[in-house]
Every structure is written in structure tokens, then in C-alpha cells.
Specification:
Layout: E1 5-8, E2 11-14, E3 18-21, E4 24-27, H1 33-39, H2 46-55, H3 57-61, E5 67-69, H4 76-86, H5 92-100, E6 102-106, H6 109-126, H7 132-145, E7 146-148, H8 156-163, H9 174-177
Parallel strand pairs: 5-6, 6-7
Antiparallel strand pairs: 1-2, 3-4
Helix pairs in contact: 2-4, 4-6, 5-7, 6-7
């Protein structure tokens, strides 16, 4: 089993553990048993992500169609959706529109950082000629649209305000306080 890290703003972020299987990488669906027990954290495998996105493929390919992943984990669904949206993009502005149409919330801060990193990497790879200003714009979009919070504790009003450019209420991990 391999363990790798990425860096986001100078912070090392562990990747999801992967296993080599018949020469192909297969995602392990948990980071740790403790996280499963404490947060019910289990990641959706790529095959299931693709199959579910295939059900709404036309919407996934519309660059202005909005998607919210309420428990985004490390961004498996958002990555698949953004990949499909990027296939419809003709310009960097289209790419920023696609990026600004996806939202994700996760209770784990490291997952939020990893999701932002994965999506930013996709943007830079898809638009290698993007200026630093455009990359900064992408970072700002992701900093706003991929947030740490507990979706189950948010009201519909909170989500509406956030989707219109406002901020979410400050997340306080009450489970950590009880330990």
C-alpha cells in the first residue's frame, strides 16, 4: 500500500490510501476506522461516481448548471462533474464559470483542502495558459465554494446566502468538545 502527500498552502495533506491491484490503482474507501466510527466517513468509489453522474450527464456537461455535494469528502463527485463540465468549455472564462457552479461541504478540514487542491489542479491542467490572475480567481472561487461545515446543521437560508456569495455560519465541531 502506498501513502502519498500533497501540499496546499505549505501544509502536507495525506492522500486517500490506494492499493495496487492488477497494475491499476484502486481507491481505498476509508482513511481510518476511527474516522468511519466518528464521522461515518466512507468514500464513493470511482465506478459508482461515474455511474451516478451518467444518470444526469447532460446537466453535468452544462457549464452553468449548479451542483452541491453536501458531504464532498475529497471531491470524488465534484471532480467527475467538473471533468464533464470542462469538456464543454471553450475558454478560460467558461472554465471559471464551470468552477463557480460547483459547491461542496465537508465536516473534515483536511478533506476540504484536498478537494480544493484536486479541483485547482484540474483547472490548471485544463487551462495551462491561464494567467496568474485567472489562477488566483480560481483559488478564490474554490475557497468560497468548498467549505468546512456540517451540512446537517445548516438551514436552507444559510445555503441560499452562501450560494449568492455570502458566507456560511462558523463551523464548531461539537464532537471534539465532548472529548
Amino acid at each position: 500500500m502506498k501513502h502519498a502527500t500533497n501540499t496546499y498552502n505549505g501544509t502536507d495533506i495525506p492522500n486517500i490510501k490506494t492499493m495496487e491491484l492488477c497494475g491499476r490503482k484502486r481507491m481505498k474507501q476509508i482513511k481510518s476506522k476511527e474516522r468511519v466510527n466518528k464521522f461515518a466517513e466512507v468514500f464513493t468509489a470511482p465506478r459508482e461516481v461515474k455511474a451516478m453522474c451518467d444518470l444526469v450527464d447532460e446537466e453535468c456537461r452544462r457549464i452553468d448548471s449548479t451542483f452541491l455535494e453536501p458531504a464532498c469528502g475529497t471531491g470524488n463527485f465534484l471532480v467527475e462533474i467538473l471533468e464533464r463540465k470542462f469538456s464543454s468549455c471553450k475558454t478560460i472564462d467558461d472554465g471559471l464559470t464551470a468552477l463557480s457552479s460547483i459547491y461542496g461541504i465537508d465536516i473534515q478540514g483536511d478533506n476540504v483542502l484536498e478537494t480544493r487542491e484536486r479541483l485547482l489542479k484540474m483547472f490548471v491542467q485544463r487551462f495551462p495558459y491561464a494567467s496568474m490572475m485567472m489562477i488566483s480567481a480560481a483559488k478564490l472561487i474554490l475557497a468560497h465554494n468548498i467549505a468546512q461545515n456540517n451540512f446537517l446543521e445548516l438551514s436552507p437560508h444559510d445555503i441560499d446566502i452562501w450560494a449568492q456569495g455570502g458566507v456560511l455560519p462558523v463551523y464548531k465541531d461539537t464532537k471534539m468538545d465532548k472529548e
